[in-house]
Amino acid sequence: MKVLGVDTSTMMATCAVLDNQRLLGEYSLNQEMTHSENLVPMIKEVLDNLNLHVSDIDLFGVGLGPGSFTGLRIGIATMKSFAHVFDKPIIGISTLEGLAFNLVHEGPIVPMIDARRNRVYTGIYKWEKGRLINILKPSIMEMDELLEMLNKDFSNIMINGNGAFIHQEKINSRLKDKANLSPINLNGCRASSIAELALLKVNEHNHYDYYNIVPEYLRESQAQRELRKRES
Question: In what order do the strands lie in the sheet with 2-7?
Fold first, then answer.
């Protein structure tokens, strides 16, 4: 089964193709271009180099966020369009779960995606019997609150994500020997993780309706907040 995975929840645009247990190709780009400019050309370049077409893909996996509102809409709309046109299944994957899946670690894994204003999108995951288990559901938290909780209740922590990079001084200061930051190559969103999770989850789903694939924002967009203020 060939799987195309995509994530556009952060500044990192990433796409990958798996063929069952083999990674055929992966392309990640972190720059100031909008995902609307680079995502489809990235996908095309990867597929062209593999002598594949979108119609050859059996399953689509897409990162649902949380993260950039605009980026998520672009990535999800693109993959839903592919699934619709070629009548193929599509699986949505939490970007936080995708980040945690990058890491093989015995203790708790804490992915962090920057949510601005000293906040991060985060969750806590742990490997149990070869499966990644969510032990704290995805949420948005103040960094100080999160670090206090981690310092109190956990040890042997591994942290990754762009939020970890932004707040690394505070993490190192507050958690000290209780936590480590991931290597650079495992710190960002990887489409190969999204694709593999989609492959693992495909048999858990009874249907693959692209209409049900929606972003996991975890908070309202700025436009929605401003509209609610005007209406109140």
Answer: 22-30, 12-19, 2-7, 59-63, 90-93
Pair 12, 91 in one domain = yes
Do 123 and 81 belong together in one domain?
A: no
- Strand-pair partners of 6: 15, 62
CA R_g for the chain: 18
pTM: 0.92
CATH code of the domain in which 87 resides: 3.30.420.40
Cis peptide before 89 (omega within 30 of 0): no
Burial level of 81, CB count in 10 A (0-12/13-18/19+)? middle
The SS3 assignment for 5 reads: strand
Q: pLDDT 10s digit of each residue in the chain, 232 long?
A: 999 999 999 999 999 999 998 999 999 998 766 787 899 999 999 999 999 999 999 999 999 999 999 999 999 999 999 999 999 999 999 999 999 999 999 999 999 999 999 999 999 999 999 999 999 999 999 999 999 999 999 999 999 999 999 999 999 999 999 999 999 999 999 999 999 999 999 977 655 678 889 999 987 555 544 544 555 5
State the residue range of the domain holding 48. Answer: 2-95+190-231
Kindly state whether residues 84 and 34 are assigned to the same domain.
yes
Query: Is the domain of 16 the same as that of 41?
Result: yes
Q: Please, which residues bridge with residue 120 across strands?
A: 114, 141
